[in-house]
C-alpha cells in the first residue's frame, strides 16, 4: 500500500472501490480524500489541507461560468500553499447537465492546456469519468514518487530474498538435503 492524499471537490460516488483503494500497474494505492469547501469564508481551513495533498482535482461546474472563472484563483492558491510537485487535474463536473451548460468543453481543454494539466468532464450523477480521473491522478502521483516507490520495491524484494535464505538455512537436514543419505 502506498498512501496518497488529495483534495476532492465533489461528492463521493459509488463507482469508487471500497476503502478508496485504486490499483495502478499492479500496485494497490489507498487514497485519502479531502473535499474542501468552495466558499470564501472557509478559505483559511482549506489552505491547511493543501500542505498535505499530493494530488488535487480542481473542479468547476460546467453549468456555471462563475465556477470556471474561479479556477484561476484556485490554481494560484494551490501554487502558493500546496507542496512542490503536487499533481493537478482539471475537472468540469456536472457533465450530465448538458441543457444548462455555460462552459464549453473546449474552454476546459484550453485552460487545462494553459496550466499543463489533464482534463476530464465528469458527472457524479452518471459516474462519467469518475474512476478514470481518480486512476489518472493516482498514476500521476505514483509517477512523481517513482524513486520512493522503486526504493520500497527493492527493499521488499531484498527482505523477501533474505527471508527465503533464512528459511532455507534453518531447515533441518533431512534425507533429501543430507549428504548421509546413502549410509545404509
Ligand atoms: N447534476 C449534477 N449535480 C451534481 C453533480 N455533482 C454534485 N452535484 C450537486 O451539486 C450540489 C453541490 O454539490 P457539492 O458536492 O456540495 O459541491 P461542492 O462544490 O463540494 O460545494 P461546496 O463545498 O459547498 O463548495 C449538490 O446538490 C450535488 O448533488 C453532478 O455531477 N451532476
Automatic annotation (TrEMBL):
Bilayer topology annotation: Lipid-anchor
Compartments (UniProt record): Cell membrane
Reported cofactor(s): Mg(2+)
Pfam family, one: Ras
InterPro entries for this protein: P-loop_NTPase (IPR027417), Small_GTP-bd (IPR005225), Small_GTPase (IPR001806), Small_GTPase_Rab (IPR050305)
Record-linked SUPFAM superfamilies: P-loop containing nucleoside triphosphate hydrolases (SSF52540)
Alphabetical keyword list: Cell membrane, GTP-binding, Hydrolase, Lipoprotein, Magnesium, Membrane, Metal-binding, Methylation, Nucleotide-binding, Prenylation, Protein transport, Transport
Cellular component GO terms, alphabetical: plasma membrane
EC code(s) of this entry: 3.6.5.2
Reaction equations catalysed: GTP + H2O = GDP + phosphate + H(+)
Domain of life (superkingdom): Eukaryota
Region Disordered: start-end pairs: 165-184
A GO BP annotation: protein transport
GO molecular function terms attached to this record: G protein activity; GTP binding; metal ion binding
Function: The small GTPases Rab are key regulators of intracellular membrane trafficking, from the formation of transport vesicles to their fusion with membranes. Rabs cycle between an inactive GDP-bound form and an active GTP-bound form that is able to recruit to membranes different sets of downstream effectors directly responsible for vesicle formation, movement, tethering and fusion. RAB15 may act in concert with RAB3A in regulating aspects of synaptic vesicle membrane flow within the nerve terminal.
Complexes and interactors: The GTP bound form of RAB15 interacts with REP15. Interacts (GTP-bound form) with MICAL1, MICAL3, MICALCL, EHBP1 and EHBP1L1.
Entry's family note: Belongs to the small GTPase superfamily. Rab family.
Name assigned to this protein: Ras-related protein Rab-15
Provenance organism: Ictidomys tridecemlineatus
Amino acid at each position: 500500500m502506498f498512501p496518497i492524499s488529495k483534495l476532492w471537490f465533489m461528492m463521493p460516488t459509488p463507482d469508487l472501490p471500497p476503502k478508496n483503494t485504486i490499483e495502478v500497474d499492479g500496485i494497490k494505492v489507498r487514497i485519502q480524500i479531502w473535499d474542501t469547501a468552495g466558499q470564501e469564508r472557509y478559505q483559511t481551513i482549506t489552505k491547511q489541507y493543501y500542505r498535505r495533498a499530493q494530488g488535487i482535482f480542481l473542479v468547476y461546474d460546467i453549468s456555471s461560468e462563475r465556477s470556471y472563472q474561479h479556477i484561476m484563483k484556485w490554481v494560484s492558491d494551490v501554487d502558493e500553499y500546496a507542496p512542490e510537485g503536487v499533481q493537478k487535474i482539471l475537472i468540469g463536473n456536472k457533465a450530465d447537465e448538458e441543457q444548462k451548460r455555460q462552459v464549453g468543453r473546449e474552454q476546459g481543454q484550453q485552460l487545462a492546456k494553459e496550466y499543463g494539466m489533464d482534463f476530464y468532464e465528469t458527472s457524479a450523477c452518471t459516474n462519467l469519468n469518475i474512476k478514470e480521473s481518480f486512476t489518472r491522478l493516482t498514476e500521476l502521483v505514483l509517477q512523481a514518487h517513482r524513486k520512493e516507490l522503486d526504493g520500497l520495491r527493492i527493499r521488499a524484494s531484498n527482505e523477501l530474498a533474505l527471508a527465503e535464505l533464512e528459511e532455507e538455512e534453518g531447515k533441518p537436514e533431512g534425507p533429501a538435503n543430507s549428504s548421509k543419505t546413502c549410509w545404509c
